[in-house]
Amino acid sequence: MTEQMITIDGIDLCYETFGDPADATVLLIAGGAQSMVWWEEGFCTRLAEAGRHVVRYDHRDTGRSASSPPGRPSYTAHDLTTDPLRILDALGVRRAHLVGLSKGGDIAQRIALEHPERVITLCLASTSPAVPAEHDRKLPPPSPQVMATFTDPEPGPDWTDRDAVVVYRVEAERPYAGSLGFDEPHYRRLAAQEVDRTRDMAASMTNHFVLDYDTPAGFRLDQITAPTLVLHGTTDPMFPFEHGQALAAEIPGARLVPLPGAGHQQPPRELWDLAIAAIVEHTEEG
């Protein structure tokens, strides 16, 4: 594995690779306010051992990538959406397998619709349709606990107090747990990694959520041509399972693999065998 920085148009983006660059590239796109560490090293290593060139990266305002003042991002939602293409360009990769989670799944859908020539296959995890349908999908809303994180958010910590920030980052994940439970020591380790390598955690926890996200005009899910795998937790409290079912129903030929007991998260360790096998099988093409 090799962590590297690239600078494009004056913007620093940090990424890390696993495996042989001669193998097909699998680009992992994390969720909003998530740095690359949430795609765990062990998960990436297992994909690489299966013969994939795995790439994970820090969104702007996460990890070691470019940072803006809290509440004042110096970039647009479109920039965030096209950063995966900048990463691929830096690697000299014309076409890749995209694996996007939550907001990363939204980004992956947009790329598949707007830049289909860059996508070999698509894997959408813990996400929801990024474009409207001709009919009302009537998808269920987030749980009350998740809604409260938006309507009545906890006050931020003292951002200069490293331990307080780690606790805050852990607690930010707690409402999104599924029925498998919340492994607090595990989340604490990931949160500590994130805090210790992030330029500005106040910006990281704020800026993605003040961007103006538009809805791509004129697109429908049935226009996605890339073979698509949908991974969705059966107890996802942010996007209940029906959201994954809608993706699988509307994208031609898409296959849905339920993740039993998973919440709104990267596939938990208990389900790595299932999720990794599904991704490996799906990315055999190319």
TrEMBL record:
One of its GO terms (biological process) is glycerolipid catabolic process. This is Pimeloyl-ACP methyl ester carboxylesterase. Pfam families: Abhydrolase_1. It comes from Nonomuraea solani. The lineage of its organism: Bacteria, Bacillati, Actinomycetota, Actinomycetes, Streptosporangiales. Residues 60-79 are annotated as: Disordered. One of its GO terms (molecular function) is triacylglycerol lipase activity. Gene3D superfamilies: alpha/beta hydrolase. It comes from the Bacteria. Residues 25-264 form the AB hydrolase-1 domain.
